[in-house]
Predict the 3D structure of the following.
Amino acid sequence: MNFRTWRGKKVLVTGGNGFLGSRVVRQLRRDGAENIITPRSSECDLRRQVAVRELLNRERPDVIIHLAAKVGGIGANRLNPGRFFYDNITMGVELIEAAREISVEKFVTIGTICSYPKVTPVPFREEDLWNGYPEETNAPYGIAKKALLVQSLAYRQQYDFPGIYLLLVNLYGPGDNFDPRSSHVIPAIVRKMFEARQANQKSVTLWGDGSPTREFLYVDDAARGIVLAARKYDEGDPVNLGSGHEISVHELAEMVAQVVGFHGRIVWDAGKPNGQLRRSLDVSRARTKFGFRAEIDFKTGLRRTIRWYANHVSLLASHH
């Protein structure tokens, strides 16, 4: 179902108050959507079938964008593999089934680059998704998300379910999660360097050896891509959403140090896991199918993120 305009459409965004969700809601409004529902987890536990059915029967949304997820970096994934698997698979399964029951016009599932096999030709093409087991440190999360693609396709086949599936690369930007226990690579490095600079430390120790590469997508770009796909994309095939720009963690660390103003040494703790060796997406399908192209270049996005963090830290300090 393609639609020209959001006018008259009721859109439900799970995780709509989070880092990505708040941007998706803003982008929807910018695009003319007026009726947007963003249930909080305290109001509706998406892992409970009864709660999900009640929510959907009460609200009767035309479009559902499912962003709610249990996410974290390598450390969090290693500590909570069971929780990451259960929460992500259960929320998705219950939502898709309840959405089918009320005949939604469009259901957008957000997948993850962690679903790709550990060894995948670079750049990752959507066709390679099933050619092996994901990297072990985040496989439970990746497989839970991949199962929702299978559900979406099975429902499309049996019930003509209008589900689409987007594979997101690592996101970053102002408002990211900077908690060292659960943050992803950019906020983790930014916080370490920032605190090291403030404490006049001579060095900073980072996980792994710095050799893996990653691709990052600025959060506002991701939101734009999701909203575009929700309106214009109609097929069952999964679509990569990324920037098409690959950078090594080593280079990323140097860049963060430069922007933060940390002049000490960067020490690599090779005893800690690197995660997947290379990650970079083939982003041509998104361009062809619904005209998405990332607009914010990496250095600009990184500067904005670090500026936000610096302001946020000084604001917190002034409140204490």
Residues 185-211+247-276+305-319 form a domain with the UDP-galactose 4-epimerase; domain 1 fold (CATH 3.90.25.10). The chain has a mean pLDDT of 94. The CA atoms of residues 113 and 271 lie 24 Å apart.
